[in-house]
Every structure is written in structure tokens, then in C-alpha cells.
Amino acid sequence: MVEMVKLLVDDQIVLEYNKSIPLPEQQLGYLEKMDAMMTKGIELGGNKISQPDNTQKAQFVALNMLIHLKQSDDTGAIAMFSYLVNRLPDLKQVKAKYINDKVGIEFVFDRDHSNWQKVEFTPLKH
Asked: Do 61 and 83 contact (CB within 8 A), yes or no?
């Protein structure tokens, strides 16, 4: 069974990651370097965090992933997405939503993304 993790930005699928394909050693080494760098401290939401936990690291990486996407740096975005999928093994979706120049990020662990479409109903006039 192929297990896909999806990144959705404003309800649109932007990236998909196939968890059944293992990462090459070089890329795993890069993820280890990322972890080591973040262990030294990160800035999240304007606050310096000297010893970030795994959740804070994931939030930091997700925000950086979105920055890479905005800069059309697909390689950087994919590297960040790889980190999230490999460090959060139960991850099924990352949802980002922009509202008034701010972004909200949700990590979804309990349900796969379904390809449903929103249907709007217009009231009938009598």
C-alpha cells in the first residue's frame, strides 16, 4: 500500500510525499544535520527557543518550508517536507492557510486527505 503524505496550502495540494520510498543515506544525513543545528536553538514566533522540542522543530521546519515555496525553491521545500515526514512518522497531512499575511499550520495525524470538493448551495427563490 502506498502511503502519501500531502501538503495543502489554502486547501490546494502543493506537495505529496510517498512514504514507501526510502530516503538515500545522503538525504538522511542532511536531516540529521538539520536536527543538530536546531538543537542549538531556533526562533519561532519571534521568540528564541534555546532547547526546542520535536513539536517546535516541526513548526519551525514547516514555516521554512512555506518560505521556500514562496521563493519558488522547490528543492528546499521538498527537503523541509522530507524532514517533517521522517520525523513525524504518523503524519498524514500538513495544512497551511494564509489569512491577512499570517499563516496557520496544522499537522494532521488521524486522517488522510480525501479529494472532496466543496459544493455551495444557492437557496431557491419561490
From this structure: yes
The answer to whether residue 122 sits within a structural domain is no
Confidence at residue 124, expressed as pLDDT on a 0 to 100 scale: 60
Reduced to 3 states (helix: H, G, I; strand: E, B; else coil), residue 125 is coil
Nearest to 84 by CA among 25, 34, 24: 34
Digit-coded pLDDT (tens) for 15-51? 999 999 989 999 999 999 999 999 999 999 889 999 9
Whether 119 is in a domain gets the answer: no
Q: Is 91 left (phi over 0), alpha (psi -120 to 50) or beta?
A: beta
d(C-alpha 71, C-alpha 68), whole Å: 5
Residue 35 lies in a domain: yes
Q: What is the span of the domain harbouring residue 62?
A: 4-108
